[in-house]
Write a structure and sequence with these properties.
The chain is of the alpha/beta class. It has a domain of 162 residues: Rossmann fold. Helices cover 34% and strands 17% of the residues. The protein is built from six helices and seven strands, in the order H-H-E-E-E-E-H-E-H-E-H-H-E. The protein has a seven-stranded mixed beta sheet, sandwiched between helices. Helix 3 links the parallel strand 4 and strand 5. Helix 3 packs across helix 4. The longest helix is centred in the last third of the chain and has 25 residues. The radius of gyration is 19 Å and the shape is globular. The termini are far apart. The model has no long low-confidence stretch (mean pLDDT 93).
C-alpha cells in the first residue's frame, strides 16, 4: 500500500489529478501545464526529441514511436533524477540532420544562454514541417540559480524562432490572472511561514493550508474576469518551415 502511495505521490508532482491539490503546493501551475502539453501532444508522432528532458515528466502524454531525451550534465536539476538518453555540450546536439519528427522543451529556455543558436540546432535535427512545443515561465520566482537567466513574454521567443526557421502556430497563456496570484501567494506562504522539512510535513502543510487557498483561487479564477496580461506560463507550438530561409 505504501509503495502505491509513493508512486501516486511522485506522479502528482508534474501530472496532478484533482486529488493532487492536497499534496502539490504548485498544483495550479502544474495542472495548467499538464493540460496544455497533453492537448498538443496529440499532434506528435514518430521519433520525438525532449530537449532539456530532466526527469521526462510528460513522456506518458505522448503516444509516439520513439521518445528520446537529451540534456546537459550540469544544470539546476539534480543529475541523479535525470532520465536523459543522451547528453550534449554548448549548443551541439548529438544527432543527425532531420532525425526527428517533432520536439518539445518544457521549462528550459529561461536557462538557455543563447536561445537563437539553440533553436537553430533544434531546427537542424528536425524534419521539415515538424512541430516544436515549448513551455517557459513568465510569472515565477528565480529557480535553479545561477542557471535561471530570462523571463520571456508571450512573444518573447518569436523572433528567435522565426530567425531559426520556425513559424509560431499557437500561443497559450496559463493559468488565469487570479490563479497566478493565488499560486504565488501559496508559494510565498510555504517558503516563509509554513514548516517545510520532511515529506510528511510538506504533505500535511499542503493539505491543511495550501490546498484550501489554491482551491479558493481556482474558484475565483473561474468566476471573475480574466486579464491575460499576467500569467504563469507560456505554451507555444511552432513548426519548422519546409524551406529554412526566413521570410523577407
Amino acid at each position: 500500500m505504501m509503495s502505491r502511495f509513493k508512486i501516486w505521490l511522485e506522479r502528482q508532482r508534474f501530472l496532478p489529478s484533482r486529488a493532487g491539490i492536497f499534496v502539490n503546493r504548485d498544483f495550479i501551475i502544474r495542472r495548467g501545464l499538464m493540460r496544455e502539453v497533453g492537448r498538443f501532444a496529440k499532434q506528435f508522432k514518430g521519433r520525438i526529441l525532449d530537449f532539456g528532458c530532466g526527469e521526462k515528466p510528460y513522456e506518458s502524454l505522448f503516444s509516439v514511436e520513439k521518445y528520446v531525451g537529451v540534456d546537459i550534465e550540469v544544470s539546476g536539476h539534480s543529475s541523479e533524477k535525470k532520465k536523459a538518453d543522451f547528453y550534449f555540450r554548448d549548443t551541439t546536439l548529438p544527432f543527425a540532420d532531420a532525425e526527428f519528427d517533432g520536439a518539445l522543451s518544457t521549462e528550459v529556455f529561461q536557462s538557455v544562454p543563447d536561445p537563437g543558436a539553440m533553436l537553430r540546432e533544434l531546427a537542424r535535427v528536425l524534419k521539415p514541417g515538424a512541430p516544436l512545443l515549448i513551455t517557459y515561465p513568465y510569472g515565477w520566482e528565480e529557480v535553479e540559480m545561477p542557471y535561471d537567466m530570462a523571463r520571456y513574454t508571450s512573444v518573447g521567443l518569436n523572433r528567435f524562432l522565426n530567425a531559426a526557421g520556425f513559424d509560431v502556430e499557437e500561443v497559450v497563456k496559463t493559468p488565469t490572472y487570479i490563479e497566478t496570484l493565488t499560486q504565488l501567494f501559496t508559494l510565498w506562504l510555504s517558503r516563509t511561514v509554513l514548516p517545510w522539512g520532511r515529506r510528511a510535513v510538506r504533505i500535511v502543510s499542503t493539505t491543511l493550508f495550501v490546498a484550501p487557498i489554491n482551491l479558493f483561487g481556482i474558484m475565483l479564477g473561474r468566476v471573475l474576469p480574466n486579464d491575460p496580461r499576467y500569467f504563469h506560463n507560456v505554451i507555444l507550438l511552432a513548426r519548422k518551415r519546409q524551406v529554412l530561409n526566413p521570410p523577407s
